[in-house]
Amino acid sequence: MMLPIIETDRLILRAPRPQDASAIARYLNDFEVAGNLARVPFPYTLADAEAWLRTRHTDMAVEDANFTIELKGRGYVGHVGFHPGPDGPIIGYWLGKPFWGQGIMTEAAATALDWFFEASKAPVVYSGVFHFNHASLAIQHKLGFTQTGRSWLLCLARDAEVEHIDTQLTLGVWKARRT
C-alpha cells in the first residue's frame, strides 16, 4: 500500500525518506528522547538512522506504516508509526525535544490514528509508555487510550528492563471521541 501524504493546519505526515537520516540521528541521539523508547539505542548515530530508513519501503502494509512528522516551515520534527505486535497493531511515536509541549504529537498521533482506523480492519490499537513518561501517557489519555496493565519491556537506550504501562484504544472509543 502506498503511504499517503496527510496535511493538517500545522503538520505534514509522509513516508520517511533517506534525506531524513541526519534529522532522525540528531533528535534520537538525545537520551531524553531515546530513553523513553523501547527499540532505540543510545547513542544513536547517522548509521543507525540510515539502517532504519533502509527497512522502510513506500509499499509497506498498513500495520507497518510509518509517518515522518514535518512541522510546516520547520521541517522534520519526529515520527509516528505502527508495527505488528503479539496482540495486534502497536502505535509508537517520538518527537525531537525542541518541539515538546506544543501539542504537535497529539495532533500527529490523532491524524495517524484517523488514517490507520480507516485503512485497516483493526478493532484496537495497542501502545504504552515507560512508567516515568508522564507526557506521553497524557497524550494517550487525550486520544482515548485506556490502561490495561503493566509489564516489563527492554529499553535499548537504558540497557535495562523497565516497567511499562500498557494501553489500548478501541475503534469504538476512537469513533465516539471523533464525532
TrEMBL record:
Keywords: Acyltransferase, Transferase. GO terms for molecular function: acyltransferase activity, transferring groups other than amino-acyl groups. Pfam families: Acetyltransf_3. Residues 11-161 form the N-acetyltransferase domain. It comes from the Bacteria. Belongs to the acetyltransferase family. RimJ subfamily. This is Protein N-acetyltransferase, RimJ/RimL family. It comes from Devosia crocina.
